C-alpha cells in the first residue's frame, strides 16, 4: 500500500531531495529567469538586475499565465509559454555573430559584506520553515511556523493543480473565496508543469529562492540608484534582521530580558507568511521597474510593470494596497512638481484595471474596513507580560467621566509606547538629512511614504469585517519597507562621527537589533532537537494512505474533526489523502467568512445524533461516500451501523464506507 513519504515528502538528507533541488533550479531558470531576462534585455541588465528584478518579474508572469490559461481552459498553453520565451531568449545567442554583444548598463557586483548579509539572512529565514513538512524521526514532521496555515497553502496548491478556477479544498462544490491564492498558484503551476513535489516546492525550494531574491533585489535597487555600499549593507541588515524593541521594553519595566511577547514582525520570520514573502520580493522588483517606466522611453515596459504590480492583488492584498496608494502618491508628486507624469498615469490606469481582474473573482466579498479608534494600542498596553493594565484602567475612568482630554492623553501615550516597541530600531528611518533623502528620487519617496502612511493608518486604527484584526498586515508593510529608510538613517548617523565613535554606533545598533533573530533561531533549534513541533501519528498516516490508495478518486469523504483535531483548522485530510472532503479545515473557512452553517448542522447530525433516518438522509443527499473517524467510534455500534461498514481500522482511525444501497430502506422505513 506504500506510505505518504513516497508521494509527498522526503527527509532533508534524502538523495532524492537533492536531485529535486537541482531540478527545481532548472525549472526556475525556464519559468522565471528566462522571461525576466527577455523582457529586461532592452535595458542590458547585469546579473544582480537579472536576478533581483528579472526573477520576481518571472514569478508574477508565471502566475498570470496560470491564471489566464486556467480560465481559458487551455492549461496546456503553459508549455507554449515556456517555449516562446526560451526561443526568444536563445535567438540572439544563435545569431551573435551578426550583432555585437551589448554592454551591460545596469550592472554591478555585490561586495563580500553585502553578499554575506544576504546569505546569512537567507539561512536564518529558511531555518524557520526548513523543517516544515519533512520526514524526521520516522514520521511526517512540521516545525515551526503555523502548521494550519502551511497545510492550507499546500491544499490550495493541490487543488489548483487539479482544477481552475479552484474550489475550496475543505468544502467540495464551493468555489474558493475571500482568499488571495496566487502564491499557491505559482507553486501549483511549477508542480503541474514540471512535476515537482508540492510540499518541498512550497516550503524548502521556493523559501530559499525568495529569501535570497529579497536581498539580491535590494542590491539591484542599490545599483540602479547608485547607492553607496554602506547604504546597501544597512538596508540588507534591516530587511533580514530588523526587529522590535518589546524585549527592551520588558527589561526597562523590570521584567528581565524576555522574548515571551511575540513581535508584530521581524526579518527572520519573513517566510512564516509565504504569501507576504512573495509580495514583498515582487514589490521590491516593481520599485525598480517603476523607475524604468518613468525614466526610459521603452514603449512596453509600463505594461509589463502593470502586470507585475497587479499580481500583488493575488499575492497579498495588504502589500497591493501599499503599492497602489504609493503609485497614486507618486503620480500626484510628479503633477505637483510639473514633471512628466504620463507614463506613471498610464501605468496606474493599467494596474488598476488588471488588479480588479485579479481581485474581484474570488475576493469581491472580502475586506470591509471599520474604524476602531485606539483599540490596537490599548490592547497592547493590557498585555499580561507588560503589567501595565492599570494605565488602561485609568484611561477608562477618565473616558467614563467625560474627561476626554486626559483620556486622549493616555491613548497618545499608548500609541507612542506601541510604536517604539513595535518598530524598534526601524525608527532610525525618521532620522534623515537632505543628503540621505537624495538617495531615492522624489517621486519614489512619494511612492514609499504614501504607501506607508496609508498602511499605518489602516493598520493602526481600523479592523476588517473578514479577517478582523488581520489589518495588522498593513502595519507589517511599514515595518518591512521602512527598512529602506532605516538603512539610510543608520548610514547617515554612523557616518556623522569620527571612526571610533562611528564603530561604537554601528555596534550599538546591531546589538540592540539582533537579539530577536537569535532568539527565533534558538527557539526553532530547541523545538527541532527536542520534543517541539508536530508529528503526524503513524497510524493516522495509515488511514490516510488507505483513503488515498484504496478509495475511488471521485469519492467524497466526511471527517469527524471533533475527534480528529488535526483536520479542524486546515484541510489536512484533503491534501494528504488526495481526496475531496465534505467539510475540512472549518476553522480557516470561518475565518474567511465562508457560509458553513448548513455543513455544521450536517456534520453534527451525522457524527453526533443517533437518529439513523436523519443520518442516512444526509449521507445520501450530500453524496458522502466515506467517513474518517477516530477509533473507537460509536457510530458503527448504533443503528447507523446498518449502512456503515468499516473498511479500515487501527488503534487511531477508522474508515467507514457508506453502503448506499442500504440508505433508501432506512429512510423509507422511518
TrEMBL record:
It comes from the Bacteria. The chain crosses the membrane at residues 20-40, 47-64, 76-94, 115-136, 206-226, 232-253, 274-294, 300-332, 344-362, 412-431, 443-462, 474-493. The keyword Transmembrane applies. The keyword Hydrolase does not apply. Keywords: Membrane, Transmembrane, Transmembrane helix. This is Glycosyltransferase RgtA/B/C/D-like domain-containing protein.
Amino acid at each position: 500500500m506504500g506510505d505518504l513519504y513516497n508521494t509527498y515528502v522526503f527527509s532533508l538528507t534524502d538523495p532524492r531531495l537533492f536531485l529535486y533541488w537541482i531540478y527545481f533550479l532548472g525549472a526556475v531558470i525556464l519559468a522565471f529567469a528566462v522571461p525576466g531576462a527577455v523582457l529586461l534585455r532592452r535595458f542590458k541588465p547585469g546579473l544582480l538586475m537579472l536576478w533581483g528584478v528579472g526573477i520576481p518579474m518571472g514569478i508574477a508572469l508565471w502566475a498570470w499565465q496560470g491564471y489566464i490559461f486556467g480560465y481559458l481552459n487551455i492549461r496546456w498553453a503553459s508549455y507554449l509559454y515556456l517555449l516562446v520565451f526560451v526561443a526568444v531568449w536563445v535567438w540572439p545567442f544563435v545569431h551573435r555573430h551578426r550583432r555585437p554583444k551589448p554592454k551591460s548598463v545596469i550592472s554591478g557586483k555585490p561586495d563580500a559584506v553585502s553578499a554575506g548579509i544576504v546569505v546569512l539572512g537567507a539561512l536564518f529565514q529558511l531555518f524557520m520553515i526548513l523543517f516544515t513538512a519533512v520526514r524526521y524521526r520516522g514520521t511526517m514532521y512540521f516545525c515551526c511556523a503555523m502548521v494550519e496555515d502551511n497545510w492550507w497553502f499546500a491544499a490550495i496548491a493541490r487543488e489548483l493543480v487539479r482544477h481552475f478556477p479552484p474550489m475550496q479544498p475543505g468544502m467540495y462544490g464551493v468555489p474558493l473565496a475571500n482568499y488571495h491564492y496566487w502564491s499557491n498558484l505559482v507553486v501549483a503551476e511549477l508542480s503541474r508543469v514540471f512535476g515537482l513535489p508540492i510540499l518541498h516546492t512550497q516550503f524548502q525550494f521556493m523559501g530559499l529562492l525568495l529569501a535570497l531574491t529579497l536581498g539580491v533585489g535590494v542590491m539591484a535597487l542599490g545599483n540602479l540608484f547608485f547607492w553607496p555600499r554602506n547604504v546597501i549593507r544597512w538596508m540588507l541588515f534591516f530587511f533580514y534582521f530588523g526587529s522590535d524593541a518589546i524585549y527592551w521594553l520588558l527589561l526597562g519595566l523590570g521584567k528581565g530580558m524576555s522574548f515571551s511577547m511575540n513581535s508584530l514582525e521581524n526579518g527572520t520570520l519573513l517566510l512564516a507568511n509565504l504569501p507576504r514573502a512573495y509580495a514583498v520580493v515582487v514589490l521590491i522588483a516593481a520599485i525598480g521597474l517603476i523607475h524604468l517606466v518613468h525614466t526610459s522611453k521603452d514603449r512596453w515596459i509600463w505594461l509589463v510593470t502593470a502586470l507585475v504590480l497587479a499580481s500583488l492583488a493575488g499575492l497579498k492584498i495588504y502589500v497591493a494596497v501599499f503599492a497602489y496608494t504609493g503609485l497614486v502618491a507618486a503620480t500626484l508628486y510628479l503633477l505637483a512638481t510639473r514633471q512628466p507624469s504620463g507614463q506613471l498615469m498610464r501605468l496606474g490606469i493599467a494596474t488598476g484595471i488588471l488588479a480588479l481582474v485579479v481581485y474581484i473573482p474570488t475576493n469581491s466579498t472580502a475586506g470591509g474596513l471599520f474604524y476602531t479608534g485606539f483599540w490596537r494600542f490599548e490592547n497592547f498596553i493590557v498585555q499580561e507580560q507588560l503589567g501595565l493594565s492599570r494605565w488602561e484602567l485609568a484611561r477608562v475612568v477618565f473616558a467614563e467621566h467625560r474627561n476626554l482630554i486626559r483620556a486622549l492623553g493616555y491613548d497618545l501615550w499608548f500609541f507612542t509606547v506601541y510604536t517604539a516597541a513595535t518598530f524598534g530600531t526601524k525608527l532610525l528611518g525618521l532620522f534623515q538629512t537632505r543628503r540621505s533623502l537624495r538617495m531615492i528620487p522624489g517621486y519614489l519617496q512619494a511612492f514609499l511614504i504614501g504607501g506607508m502612511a496609508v498602511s499605518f493608518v489602516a493598520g493602526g486604527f481600523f479592523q476588517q469585517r473578514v479577517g478582523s484584526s488581520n489589518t495588522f498586515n498593513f502595519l507589517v508593510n511599514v515595518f518591512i519597507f521602512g527598512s529602506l529608510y532605516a538603512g539610510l538613517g543608520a548610514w547617515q548617523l554612523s557616518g556623522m562621527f569620527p571612526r571610533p565613535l562611528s564603530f561604537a554606533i554601528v555596534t550599538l545598533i546591531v546589538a540592540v537589533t539582533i537579539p530577536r533573530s537569535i532568539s527565533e533561531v534558538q527557539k526553532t533549534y530547541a523545538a527541532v532537537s527536542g520534543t517541539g513541533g508536530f508529528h503526524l501519528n503513524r497510524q493516522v498516516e495509515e488511514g490516510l494512505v488507505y483513503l488515498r490508495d484504496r478509495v475511488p478518486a471521485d469519492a467524497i469523504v466526511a471527517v469527524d474533526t471533533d475527534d480528529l483535531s488535526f483536520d479542524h483548522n486546515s484541510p489536512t485530510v484533503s491534501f494528504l489523502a488526495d481526496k475531496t472532503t465534505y467539510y475540512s479545515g472549518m476553522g480557516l473557512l470561518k475565518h474567511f467568512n465562508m457560509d458553513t452553517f448548513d455543513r455544521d448542522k450536517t456534520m453534527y447530525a451525522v457524527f453526533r445524533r443517533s437518529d439513523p433516518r436523519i443520518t442516512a438522509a444526509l449521507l445520501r443527499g450530500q453524496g458522502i461516500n466515506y467517513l474518517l473517524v477516530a477509533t473507537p467510534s460509536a457510530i458503527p455500534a448504533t443503528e447507523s451501523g446498518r449502512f456503515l461498514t468499516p473498511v479500515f481500522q487501527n488503534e487511531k482511525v477508522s474508515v467507514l464506507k457508506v453502503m448506499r444501497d442500504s440508505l433508501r430502506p432506512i429512510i423509507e422505513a422511518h
